[in-house]
Design brief:
It catalyses: 2 GTP = 3',3'-c-di-GMP + 2 diphosphate. One of its GO terms (cellular component) is plasma membrane. Its EC number is 2.7.7.65. This is diguanylate cyclase. It is a single chain. This protein has about 350 residues and is of the alpha/beta class. The protein has 2 domains: about 5-180, Serine Threonine Protein Phosphatase 5, Tetratricopeptide repeat (Alpha Horseshoe), CATH 1.25.40; about 190-345, 2-Layer Sandwich (Alpha-Beta Plaits). Helices cover about 65% and strands about 10% of the residues. The chain has a 6-stranded mixed sheet with strand order 1-3-4-2-7-8, with helices on both faces. A two-stranded antiparallel ribbon has the order 5-6. The chain starts with a helix and ends in a 10-residue tail after the last strand.
């Protein structure tokens, strides 16, 4: 019998049977109390004691488990530690140790907030899958170390290994989904600046190794703040979404496009000279300036953009340098009346040494 089975007995309203199973498992396996498995065992046994009205014993068991975890070193499962602190708080409250109860309640809440994090639902699902995976591993370990027959062990191990593979695949899928969410701009669907700065070093190294040009384009929608102020944020969001879609349709699949923030976008165009990038941006500007958008029954004013283009390696050897030069060219385009594409001047270059 294993701790997950004991949880089933507790959920079914039989804490005495659950406690018996937990003590039998601890005795049969001879586990070192200072390990991750015993942390889960400790809070489950403490809860059994609480459910049977033995708050003092529950407090002692939970404190022993916490002490063992503190002395073990290495990583401690955050979920089990959170439940242990909550159990300690409940036991301390029932034994009228208010200060101790409040201390462990705060510790448990802090661990809970760490677990939930920013993407609460997705992270909780990922945590739950990881926890189930750990439980499956523990069951497999008990099956290997137990005294069952060889034939029963072989069948159970086969089932557990299959479950492990499925849980590992699900965990990987959720981790990839979380990473993709972290690298995407939710409004436009384009990648964000974090993705750009992760990918850029590899693109620049490839261009350097192959001695190929690479253009970096910084784009800013003209009069966007005025559009937001006069037509509302819904209109601004619609313009951003349609421009992002037009940008993605115009550039190549090998180009990297991201929303840099606000009304700014960045395009990294490998194997592209600055004048070639300028020609692409001119076509994009022509298309965008003739685009007529409507929100409800209201026609929105047609938009334009300004852009600055910097070239690797002549204008910089890092993304930060190239964006800085492109920003100066963008400023020049704005200063000259907007709705323009400007290159970094020929004399404005940087040394690669």
């Amino acid at each position: 019998m294993t701790p997950p089975v004991a949880l089933g007995w507790m959920a079914g309203g039989d804490p005495a049977r659950a406690e018996q199973l937990l003590r039998e498992v601890q005795h049969a396996t001879g586990r070192d109390p200072a390990n991750q498995w015993s942390l889960a065992w400790g809070w489950q046994l403490a809860r059994c004691c609480l459910m049977q009205g033995r708050a003092g014993e529950a407090l002692a068991v939970a404190q022993q488990a916490l002490h063992a975890a503190d002395g073990a070193g290495g990583a401690v499962p955050c979920y089990d530690l959170m439940v242990l602190h909550r159990t300690l708080s409940e036991a301390a409250e029932q034994t009228e140790q208010v200060a101790l109860a409040l201390k462990h309640l705060r510790e448990g809440q802090s661990l809970y907030e760490r677990l939930v994090g920013r993407s609460a639902r997705a992270r909780y699902i990922a945590l739950d899958v990881t926890h189930q995976l750990a439980q499956a591993r523990r069951e497999r370990d008990v099956a290997v170390d137990g005294r069952r027959s060889v034939e029963d062990d072989r069948q159970r191990l086969s089932e557990l290994n299959a479950a492990l593979q499925a849980q590992m695949a699900e965990t990987q899928r959720l981790h990839e989904q979380l990473r993709e969410q972290a690298l995407r701009d939710p409004l436009t669907g384009l990648h964000n600046r974090r993705y750009l700065f992760e990918l850029a070093p590899g693109l620049l190294e490839r261009a350097r190794r192959q001695q190929q040009p690479l253009s970096v384009v910084l784009i800013d929608l003209d009069h966007f703040k005025l559009l937001n102020d006069t037509c509302g944020h819904a209109a601004g969001d619609l313009v951003l979404q349609r421009f992002a879609a037009l940008l993605a349709d115009t550039l190549r699949r090998s180009d990297v496009i991201c929303r840099h923030g606000g009304e700014e976008f960045v395009a990294v165009m490998p194997d592209t000279q600055a004048d070639e990038a300028q020609a692409v941006m001119e076509r994009l500007l022509q298309t965008f300036s003739t685009l007529q958008l409507e929100l409800g029954r209201r026609r929105l004013p047609r938009g334009t953009f300004s852009a600055g283009i910097a070239l690797f390696p002549g204008h910089g050897s890092t993304l930060e340098q190239l964006l800085s030069r492109a920003d100066r060219a963008l400023y020049a385009a704005k200063h000259q009346g907007r709705s323009r594409i400007e290159l970094v001047p020929r004399g404005d270059f940087t040394s690669l040494s």
